[in-house]
Amino acid sequence: MTKTPLTARPGDPPAVHVRARLDEQLRALLVHDPVAREGSDPEGVHQMRVTVRRLRAALKAEGASLGPAADELQAEMKWLGGVLGPVRDLDVQLDHLRGLAADFEPAERDAVERLLLGLRAARRKARQRLLGALKSPRYTALLEALAAAARSEVPAGDEFPASRKARAGGLIELIKRPYRKLRRTASALDEDPPDDDLHALRIQGKRLRYAAELAVPTGGKPVRKLIKATKEFQDLLGDHQDAVVAEQEVRRLLTELEDPVPLDVGVAAGRLVERERTRRADCRARWRDALAAVDSNATKVLAG
Question: Whole domain around residue 236: which residue ranges?
Fold first, then answer.
């Protein structure tokens, strides 16, 4: 990778913007890598995981014109995300459950810590797997392949659309497909959708957001408003999913304790579950309004 970052002009076609995005996110990956390896700041793993998702979105973008390399990179990025994800998820769960118990009495907080022993052990194992992956030749090869894709030539015929309007429209087109998928997924849901369906909807919202980030150079303020609305929607459904998973984890951890479960741990677990259910209900009451804001902003972008 060269020292000079790749750039793209607003009038450049999607293939050029995708390459600039790959270069930008590869550089971000290299910045967050040492923080993730060191381990004291959970943001290192978090930011690496976000970067992987942005890279995958760029590889999928309409008009990327990366050929067979895109599929190979997608597979490797999925592998990397698969070793980052468990560490990040466990960091979130531990931090969240401890936060829920922050106003408990000291003895109750001690009971929560005993409940969390299994999560702490799982995190240690997940971190060992992550460190092994980051030290592997496979990871080095992935970084080299990303650098090569970012510097690859744009195929003949993709260089410059005929008109300024067509050039501007090219990046806006990147938003159309993920938005339509989001709408189809949302339209298929009933009034009280299963938790897994809301989780799938969140993933669609995340893909729309990352696609919209690619379109900022030509979309300007309307696209930035869409990104903001999509992030709020994504965060709300993320809170919902975190509440669902946290309740499941608390119940699972109880089954792993000695039988009978110590009374103080059982009481503390019950309080945690009660708070997670309240959080889940609040998210369910608000997600459709958040989706309506995404719809409003996406309609303006695509009509413009």
Answer: 168-304
